[in-house]
Amino acid sequence: MASLTRSEAATRGALLEVNSYHVDLDLTGDGKVFRSITNVAFTAAPGGATFVDVKPEELLRVTLNGRELDVSSLVDGRLPLTDLAADNELVVVADMAYSRESKGLHRYVDPADDRVYVYGAVFLDHAPRIFACFDQPDLKAPFTFDLTVPEEWTVLGTGAATKVSPGRWRVEQAVAQATYLTTVVAGPYASFETVHDGVPLGVYCRLSVAEALEADIQEVFDVTAQCLDEFHRLFGVRYPFGRFDQVFAPEFSYLSLDHPGCVLLKELYLFRTPAPRSEHETRAVVIAHGLSLMWWAGLVTNKWWDDLWLGQAFADYLAHRVPSEVTEFTGPLTTFSARRKGQAYVADQRPSTHPVWIDGADALSALLDLDRISYFKGSSALRQLAHHIGDDAMREALRIFFARHAYGAATFADFNAAVGEAVGRDMTDWADRWLGTANVTTLAPELTVEDGVITSFAVAQTAPPSHPTLRPHTIDIGLYGEGGTHEAVRVTVDGARTEVPELVGRAAPKFLLLNENDLTYAKIRYDAASQRALPEVLPELAPINRAMVWAQLLQGVIDGAVPAADHLDLVTRMLGYETELSIVIEVLEQARIDVADRLLDPELRPGLLKAVADAARDRLGRVAPGDELGLALARGLVEFTADTSELRGWLDGVPLPAGLELDSDLAWRIRYRLAVLGAFTEAEIDEAYEADRSTHTEQFAVKARAAIPTVEAKAAAWRAITTDAELSSYRLWSTAEGFWQPEQRELTAPYVSRFFTEIVDVAALREDKVLDTLVLWLYPRYAAEPGTLALADELFARDDLPLPLRRRGADLTDDLRRAVHARRA
């Protein structure tokens, strides 16, 4: 369907103003479609013409000011409207299709009890799949939803929800809001409620998983309340939308969707089995992210999609900082440094790299650019901005911005003006260099030492030739000496070479750390002496600095500057001493998924995986029962070991180390690993799933079936992925995730070329968001060989490919090229 362009939106925005939406939804039908009746009141320039957005299964009837319109004039999701009056009433009656891909009104049948749940996933351009509308962010209006539902259902939405009669609900959203920020939720949801500082708080989930939520509900309420208080303090504006509801949405394609007053959360954050503290921490981050967007998207909406990044980047920055400061979870910034920032570095060096701010010529391109660069690089840039101008100035800028633009729409230029006003100087150059240019710069120390004393010191900054802009970096430089001595110096680095005279005359450190506390966004290189000292010094660094070093080491492996085998050797050492849970979890995941599986010479893989597994097993033997580190190490051991008898023993009742219990999640991780190793059959998978049916176990079962190393299993998985258009997004992604395995290179070799010949036809079966994730999992990422690169280069040079396929494919091919280089290095 056509993607709305900026120029089309500007024309329509100048022509009309929306006064109200009244939407009537009947959700009691056959489960395939639902009836949607939309009444839109709007004013316009008399005699003008435009179009309304509607994407129905069947368009039944349309009237404009009582005049019947031809429903056959609907083309590509747009219905023409002509001969407009000054005051207009548009009524659209349609049957809309339920979704299984979180686009529009998603309908889910719980495999545990056959109960039905629905929720509106309207992000960006999916609102017309639920109701007819003028779907652009600056045309805001109040909404009223009337819903007919089964009598036992509960209804929620972006506004006050009231049950007006049996099976009949009304949701009234009095504050004008953008269409893409509007949702309704309906079903027999379990509910938990409290009130904090006058704000009603609600949390909802499926009935079959209510016990899991009940066990954690006080933690969820506490985190929400603590972050709410801090956002009141930071923004100087109280929460603007009455009550605040959070819904754990089943079969959800996003991590969260943050509608004003009604945030949808992925059920990944609803823990049915004991989860390590790091996963509780991640949930706190997601809660803070959604809550901050009540201001950053709801109170002040972007005028166009090119500024969508600003709210998301600020939400990510605050989601890691605020919980670290006001909740029991002190590690989000460390986790960010260990994992998410590195993801931004990788994305920022791919062919699809782009500035933090989005071009946004049309809605689709804006969505594709809303990625790890927008979130994680944007978050890093904002953290650097706060460090550069000071926290007090940043808080003042936020208060100016929200006071000036509350309940309206604004641009990044408006925010940058608030920053300039807060600091008393123009910040345009800083913003242009940090947010308006792509790729990452590299910082390296240049020093000379004579008789143990620094005689000269400078920081060199380089940028790739394709993106030559250098940026100002306000950083701390840490100097670590013998006997545990440590001091830090703060400097601002700008240009290609910045002298640091305050370090001249000091004793030469054993280890020198640029960007201590990870306050800027840059790749970091070490001087020769620091490289030699790193294995010894690394355990002594603060957690956030250890996390930063690990992220930089991974970049070194990707760049071919650090041998993958050396990285895995450091991992085995790390397992002997590391106490920071998030570092253990993130480094083990990177070591397996990135280093061992893709970047390491496959001939070295079995021996080095065994070394990591042995180190994890040894540490497990020294972990006290109840220590959460035990679960993280056990999961890591399952991922790295090839000892099927050990894994089988745990399933058969052999006690786990560290006093761990074999819960459902750990049992399925073991089954999946055994399936990869050819030691768990499809019949055993089916039997285990029937004994514990849930969305979570279904995904594991689907993934495990695809991972079985037989010709028949691979053929069945490939057939489902490439031909079954009815397969839900979750089952599709899980099947693709399980298909490729590094241990099965010979078995899956014939499918490498098939991917490049068949993926174009597969793309035609899938919506853009689903296709983008599918390509991520289905690309033959382990076949890091020149022949694979030749096939990829030939396919992705074509200009007739769907944009998500062409873009994602080009990026993954760049990753593959780096993997080929790293293996050679």
What does it look like?
By secondary structure, the chain is an alpha+beta fold. The protein contains 26 helices and 28 strands. An eight-stranded mixed β-sheet has the order 5-4-7-2-1-10-13-12. A five-stranded mixed β-sheet has the order 15-16-17-19-18, covered by helices on one side. Strands 8-9-14-11 form a four-stranded antiparallel β-sheet, with no helix packed on it. Strand 15 (190-196) and strand 16 (199-205) form a beta hairpin. Helix 4 packs across helix 7 (372-389), helix 17 (644-651) runs antiparallel to helix 18 (664-676) and helix 23 (745-763) runs parallel beside helix 25. The radius of gyration is 27 Å and the shape is globular. The mean pLDDT is 95.
Spell out the key features of this protein.
8-stranded mixed beta sheet, 26 helices, alpha+beta
Question: Topology, pairings included?
Answer:
Blueprint: H1 6-15, E1 16-26, E2 33-44, E3 50-53, E4 58-64, E5 67-68, E6 78-81, E7 87-97, E8 104-109, E9 116-121, E10 141-148, E11 154-157, E12 160-165, E13 168-177, E14 184-187, E15 190-196, E16 199-205, H2 210-235, E17 244-249, E18 256-259, E19 262-266, H3 277-299, E20 300-302, H4 308-326, H5 332-348, H6 363-369, H7 372-389, H8 391-405, E21 408-410, H9 412-423, H10 428-435, E22 442-450, E23 453-462, E24 473-480, E25 486-493, E26 497-499, E27 511-514, E28 523-524, H11 528-537, H12 543-558, H13 564-574, H14 581-599, H15 605-620, H16 629-640, H17 644-651, H18 664-676, H19 682-691, H20 695-707, H21 711-723, H22 729-739, H23 745-763, H24 768-778, H25 786-796, H26 803-824
Parallel strand pairs: 1-10, 16-17, 17-19, 20-21, 22-28
Antiparallel strand pairs: 1-2, 2-7, 3-6, 4-5, 4-7, 8-9, 9-14, 10-13, 11-14, 12-13, 15-16, 18-19, 22-23, 23-26, 24-25, 24-27
